[in-house]
Amino acid sequence: MGITGLPESETLRVYDNVISAIGKTPLIRLSNIGRELPAPLYAKVEYFNPGGSVKDRIALNIIEEAEQSGRLKPGGTIVEATSGNTGVGLAIVCALKGYKAIFVMPDKMSQEKIQLLRAYGARVVMTPTSVAPEDPRSYYNVADRLVAETSNSVLANQYHNPENPRSHYETTGPEIWEQTGGKVTDVVIGMGTGGTISGVGKYLKEKNPDIRIVGVDATGSILKEIWENEGVITDEMIAETYKVEGIGEDFLPSTTDLSVVDDIVRVTDKESFLWTRRLVQREGIFAGGSCGSALYGAILYMEKENMEEDRLVVVLLPDSGSRYLSKIFDDKWMRENGYLEAEWQEMSLAEVLGTKVQHELITATVDEAMADVVDKMKAHNISQVPALNTDGSLAGLVREVDLLTHMLEVEHNHSDDETITSIVQPVNESFPSNTHLQDVMPALVKNNVVMVKDDDRLVGILSKIDVIDLIYQ
C-alpha cells in the first residue's frame, strides 16, 4: 500500500562498491501494528543499509572529512567509542580504503556486535558500562587514550563530529520528504548521539516548520530531562544503567540540536524488547532493541496527541535484529532479566522445581527403617520419597501406596527394624534439569512422577500435583 497520491516506482541499481549502496532505505507502512492507531504509521527501515544500520550513513562522511582535513593519512587507524553499529559502518569504509580500525564498546553490548566487528578485521576493546563519562575507564576516555597512543590515528568522534548530523541532513531527511511526497507530519526517532534526529529535524523543518520531531529516550538516560531544562544539565540529573543499546546518554552530545525537538517520550527496557519482538511477529520486520523503543515511543506519542487521521507519522528503525539473537530474541535471557513471562510448557524442570513450596529434596536410603521413612513422609507431607543406595546413587522410589500395600500383607512378619529395601520401586524415567516441562509430560502422566537429575545426581522429584500447582498459581 503506497502513500495516497504518491506514484510507486522501482528502479534496479548497479553500484561500483558497497559504499554506494548506503541510504535509499524503504519506507514501509505498519499495517498490522498500526491498524488501531488514529493515523497511518510508516517505518523507515534502516537495516537495508549494507552494514545493517542507520549508522552506515555517517561513516563515509566522517572518514572523508578526516582525509580532506589531512588528519588521516594512508594506512592510518580509525578509533571510535561505539555501541556497535557505528563501528560496522566505519569498518566497511576502512575495509575499502585500507585503514585499520579500533572500536571501544561498553560491556553491555551483544556478542553478535562484537563478533561482527572482529569479522571486519577490527580490534575491539571492552570497557565497563556502569562508570561515569569522566572515569578513565569509560569508553569515551579509553578511545581518547588509544588515539593518543596510536600514530596516524583519528577519533571518529560521533558524539561531537558535525559530520554526524550533516549526513542525515543530506540523506535521511530528504529521503523521508521525498518518499512521503512532502506529506509527513510527524517523525519519531530514538536519541543517542542525537545526530539522526538533529539532521533529519533540521532538514524537514526547513521544508515545513509545522512538522513535529519527536525523540525517544531510554529510562535511565537523562536526555529527556536535559531537553526539558532547555539544555542545562544539573546535579539532580543522575543517569542509571539500562540494557537497551544505541539510545540514551548520561551527557549531552554536541551533535544533538535540541532546538529541532518538539517532544520526547521515554520507554523502558521491557517495553523496548517486547515491542521489538512484536514487530517481527506482526510485521515481519526483524529489527533491533532500539527499534522497539522507537516504535513504542511512536505509539505512545500518537495516543497522547489524539491525532487526526490526516496526519502521517514516520518512525525510524535504526538496525537489524540479527545483532540481538543472544539477548532480545533469546527467551531464556528475557526471562532471566524479568522481561518475559514463561509459558509453563516452555519452563525447564529446574525452573519448575524452583516454584515448589517444598524446595528441599527429601530422600531416604534403602537400609533406612520403614517406620522412620513413614515418619519422614508424614513430617514433610509428601506421598513419595526417592530411595538412594549407600553410594548415593538412585535406587528407586518409595510411594505411600506401596507402604500401605506392604503393611496390609497379613502373612508378612513386620518388625521395627524392617527396611524399605523390599518396596523400592524402580524408576524408569529421569530427565536432566534443563529439559522443557512439555517434553516430560507423557512420562509424568504415565508414571505420576519423574526424577530430575544433573550429571547422575538427583536434584528433585516432580509430580502431577506440582504441575497443577504451577498452572494455577
In short:
The chain is of the alpha/beta class and 473 residues long.
Feature tags:
alpha/beta, 35% helix, six-stranded mixed beta sheet, Rossmann fold, 16 strands, four-stranded parallel beta sheet, CBS-domain, 16 helices, 17% strand, 473 residues
Provide an overview of this structure:
With 473 residues, the chain is an alpha/beta fold. It folds into 3 domains: 18-53 and 171-336, Rossmann fold; 57-155, 3-Layer(aba) Sandwich (Rossmann fold), CATH 3.40.50.1100; 344-472, Roll (CBS-domain), CATH 3.10.580. Helices cover 35% and strands 17% of the residues. The chain is built from 16 helices and 16 strands. It has helices at 56-68, 85-97, 111-119, 139-149, 163-170, 172-179, 195-207, 223-228, 269-283, 289-305, 331-336, 349-355, 370-380, 400-407, 437-447, 464-472, and strands spanning 27-29, 41-45, 77-81, 100-106, 123-127, 153-155, 186-190, 212-218, 263-267, 313-317, 364-365, 384-388, 394-399, 430-432, 449-454, 457-463. It has a 6-stranded mixed beta sheet. A 4-stranded parallel beta sheet has the order 5-4-3-6, with helices on both faces. A hairpin with a 2-residue loop joins β15 (449-454) and β16 (457-463). α5 crosses α7 (195-207), α6 (172-179) crosses α7 (195-207) and α9 (269-283) packs across α10.
Helices and strands, with pairings:
Blueprint (H helix, E strand, L loop, with lengths): L26 E3 L11 E5 L10 H13 L8 E5 L3 H13 L2 E7 L4 H9 L3 E5 L11 H11 L3 E3 L7 H8 L1 H8 L6 E5 L4 H13 L4 E7 L4 H6 L34 E5 L1 H15 L5 H17 L7 E5 L13 H6 L12 H7 L8 E2 L4 H11 L3 E5 L5 E6 H8 L22 E3 L4 H11 L1 E6 L2 E7 H9 L1
Parallel strand pairs: 2-10, 3-4, 3-6, 4-5, 7-8, 7-10, 8-9, 11-12, 14-15
Antiparallel strand pairs: 1-2, 12-13, 15-16
